[in-house]
């Protein structure tokens, strides 16, 4: 292996990896939408990789960037001007940066200013404890002479609420700014609300000024109703020497006193806050440490851990949890999190998964109260969509996974009433014809086709089995029996009515002929408008095929959306059907150069979630080489838009960091390739390692299992040889047992710590299954 256990302490290994995590690019040729994020739990900065702060945004036109402390925006941006004190007219603004560097928990911009005999580097980071920012500039003289510089730091406020607040009557008003001489800072307030921002510096002699709008340079004029203030100071810069400047920004959606307190705490404690953040990131990297013969993929595996952390928001009065994506979706989603929270479990983020799951469930209960899970929750605590049908079973499925990995019985008891109501809602109100296929929009939200969709049906099957497990554990035997029986009937129906034998695929939907026929002209017109000739031809052919069918005939429909992978993703599909479907899904009809198409008809856009679901589906049926190919397609888009990150729409479009991407990287590798499947409440661990053929040696260390009294940590190392395979297992935890499922081991001699195993179970596919009682370190050798 690349590293043997015990070579370095885990924290040192993590510190070394964190120090090496940097990604950058030259920025002279970047465009305005090449963006970056600097993230903390209480604040988020979104700007240009070239150092600017462009106006952009879909949800809030021109306002999705800038400096945020959710649920409000604080500023549109900031800019720095430098001039010789003796020649103020000869100065210049730091405009387009020459280079951008992205680190795990901060970022930097480099500027060359040869006309001024200067070089500058700007860095920023967000403390996690307080709603604010630290911006630092390092200036270096290249003129070779002592000098005095006049520095102007100009900030443009924009105190406004998050998207969808207007629907609740929360309207933005103009900002009003003042210079606070005592604080040495600019203080601004939204005229009609108690929303405040404070920005200043710890530089001696810093003078705050409120600027007159008509005198502002064009680069600092932004959309919105903000105010502009500046901080002015003189600094000495020795010949060939350096100088540092620091600026601090803080805000509050409650009061000026709270904003001022946050500002003072950040100004006085920023060094300790930065150190604490570094140590916490090191701790995150030390969990589920991956050692594989693919350094590039191992690096992306680590960066994906970091991406999840960028998306954590803690909003007082609303909650803390994993948000969906930056820059357009910095709030919480039922669907997105049902994927992303499962991905978190594989890398030791169980507590975050529980927090986020609770947040979604509590908002759903307040909004719906009938078990229906919401679609999206803003950071103001407003629900913008009460939930698509698919999200309820998908959420229930995620509850089971979270409980399996945490063993948190209190969490399960909190969630179970919603689980029970959710299943009743799905098979009651949402299944008016009683055929077990709930109606309503699924993940793809096909306009006008809110019918019986494959993803909703499949996730309902999975939710029924998950609910049955929960019910059994909590003593609800009748519900457990009914749900398990219903799951069996639903599986039969999906595998009969929604399986298209001629196509070797599952259908997207079950719907009446008339429901599809009346929407078909809209779909064809849209495809024509997009220049999707292939999709036009396929839909015209479908339109002709159904022209004379009875309008009330219900039949399956194939639109070739990526969700037809869900029967394989969940393991519902029998192996013969799964292999046929996956083989076709893996061709260029459904898979492009950066992942799985959203539609095999259009063959245009690809997303990390469509690719991730297919990667999980392949792994579910031990097709690990195919699964690894898809994981690597996701990884191949790393850094295409933002250095150090992966875009939501592959290879380089949409949100430049997206939570559910972890589902296609962490989950197939940890859950299936290393085969780690705990039942933490029973302190039972199933290990079923199935490595891709390219990995003859691989290891994963410090995989967190369970919490509290159920807590354990796993190291697993695999070395596959010609005549023997070696598995090293280290399990730290009280009272756990292991059940190992070893591939191609039926009839082999199996030794545990040198002792021949006399009692083993042969599986149907040539595997051997052995129990290992107790914890500690075990060496399992399979000799053929």
Automatic annotation (TrEMBL):
Residues 392-510 form the Alpha-L-rhamnosidase six-hairpin glycosidase domain. It comes from the Bacteria. This is Glycogen debranching protein. It comes from Cohnella hashimotonis.
């Amino acid at each position: 292996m690349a590293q043997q256990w015990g070579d370095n302490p885990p924290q040192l290994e993590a510190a070394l990896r964190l120090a090496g995590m940097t990604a950058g690019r030259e920025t002279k040729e970047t465009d305005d939408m090449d963006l970056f994020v600097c993230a903390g739990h209480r604040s988020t900065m979104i700007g240009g990789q070239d150092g600017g702060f462009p106006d952009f945004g879909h949800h809030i036109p021109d306002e999705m960037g800038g400096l945020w402390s959710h649920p409000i925006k604080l500023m549109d941006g900031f800019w720095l001007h430098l001039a010789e004190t003796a020649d103020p007219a000869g100065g210049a603004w730091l405009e387009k940066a020459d280079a951008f560097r992205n680190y795990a928990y901060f970022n930097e911009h480099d500027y060359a200013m040869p006309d001024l005999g200067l070089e500058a580097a700007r860095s920023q980071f967000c403390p996690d404890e307080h709603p604010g920012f630290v911006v630092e500039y390092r200036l270096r003289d290249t003129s070779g002479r002592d000098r005095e510089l006049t520095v102007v730091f100009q900030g443009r406020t924009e105190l406004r609420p998050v998207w969808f607040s207007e629907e609740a009557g929360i309207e933005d008003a103009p900002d009003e700014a003042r210079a606070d001489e005592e604080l040495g800072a600019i203080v601004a307030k939204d005229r009609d609300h108690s929303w405040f921002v404070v920005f200043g510096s710890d530089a001696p002699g810093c003078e705050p000024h409120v600027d007159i709008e008509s005198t502002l340079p064009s680069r600092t004029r932004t959309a919105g109703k903000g105010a502009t203030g500046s901080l002015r100071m003189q600094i000495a810069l020795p010949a060939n020497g350096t100088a540092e400047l620091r600026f601090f920004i803080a805000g509050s959606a409650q009061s000026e006193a709270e904003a001022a307190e946050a500002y003072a705490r950040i100004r006085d404690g920023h060094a300790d806050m930065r150190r604490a953040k570094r140590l916490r990131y090191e701790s995150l990297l030390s969990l589920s440490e991956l050692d594989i013969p693919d350094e590039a993929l191992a690096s992306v595996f680590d960066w994906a851990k970091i991406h999840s952390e960028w998306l954590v928001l803690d909003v007082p009065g609303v909650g803390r949890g994993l948000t969906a994506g930056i820059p357009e979706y910095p709030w919480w989603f039922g669907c997105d999190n049902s994927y992303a929270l499962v991905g978190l479990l594989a890398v030791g983020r169980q507590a975050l998964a529980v927090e986020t799951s609770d947040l979604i469930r509590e908002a759903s209960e307040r909004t719906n109260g009938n078990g229906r899970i919401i679609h999206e929750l803003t950071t103001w605590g407003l629900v913008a969509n009460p939930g698509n049908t698919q999200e309820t079973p998908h959420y229930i499925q995620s509850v089971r996974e979270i409980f399996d990995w945490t063993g948190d019985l209190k969490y399960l008891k909190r969630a179970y009433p919603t689980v029970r109501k959710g299943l009743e809602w799905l098979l009651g109100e949402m299944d008016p014809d009683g055929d077990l296929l709930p109606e309503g929009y699924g993940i793809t939200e096909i306009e006008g086709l809110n019918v019986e969709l494959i993803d909703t049906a499949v996730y309902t099957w999975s939710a029924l089995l998950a609910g049955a497990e929960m019910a059994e554990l909590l003593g609800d035997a009748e519900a457990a029996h009914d749900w398990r029986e219903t799951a069996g009937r639903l599986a039969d129906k999906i595998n009969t009515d929604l399986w298209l034998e001629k196509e070797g695929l599952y259908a997207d939907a079950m719907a009446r002929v008339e429901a599809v026929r009346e929407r078909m002209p809209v779909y064809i017109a849209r495809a024509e408008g997009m220049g999707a000739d292939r999709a036009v031809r396929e839909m015209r052919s479908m339109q002709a095929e159904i022209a004379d069918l009875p309008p009330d005939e219900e039949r399956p429909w194939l639109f070739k959306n990526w969700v037809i992978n869900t029967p394989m993703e969940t393991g519902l599909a029998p192996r013969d059907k799964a292999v046929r479907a996956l083989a076709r899904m893996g061709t260029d009809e459904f898979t492009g150069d950066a992942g799985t198409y959203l539609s095999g008809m259009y063959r245009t856009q690809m997303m990390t979630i469509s690719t991730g679901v297919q990667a999980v589906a392949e792994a579910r049926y031990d097709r690990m080489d195919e699964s690894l190919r898809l994981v690597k397609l996701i990884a191949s888009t790393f850094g295409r838009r933002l250095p150090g990150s992966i875009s939501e729409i592959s290879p380089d479009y949409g949100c430049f960091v997206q939570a559910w991407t972890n589902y296609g990287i962490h989950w197939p590798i940890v859950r299936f390739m290393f085969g780690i499947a705990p039942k933490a409440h029973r302190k039972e661990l199933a290990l079923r390692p199935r490595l891709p053929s390219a990995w003859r040696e691989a290891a994963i260390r410090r995989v967190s299992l369970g919490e509290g009294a159920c807590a354990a940590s796993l190291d697993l190392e695999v070395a596959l040889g010609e005549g023997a395979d070696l598995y090293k297992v280290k399990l730290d935890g009280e009272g756990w047992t292991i059940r190992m499922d070893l591939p191609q081991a039926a009839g082999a001699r199996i030794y545990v710590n040198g002792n021949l195993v006399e009692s083993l179970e042969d599986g149907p596919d040539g595997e051997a299954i052995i129990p290992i009682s107790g914890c500690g370190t075990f060496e399992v050798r399979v000799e053929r």
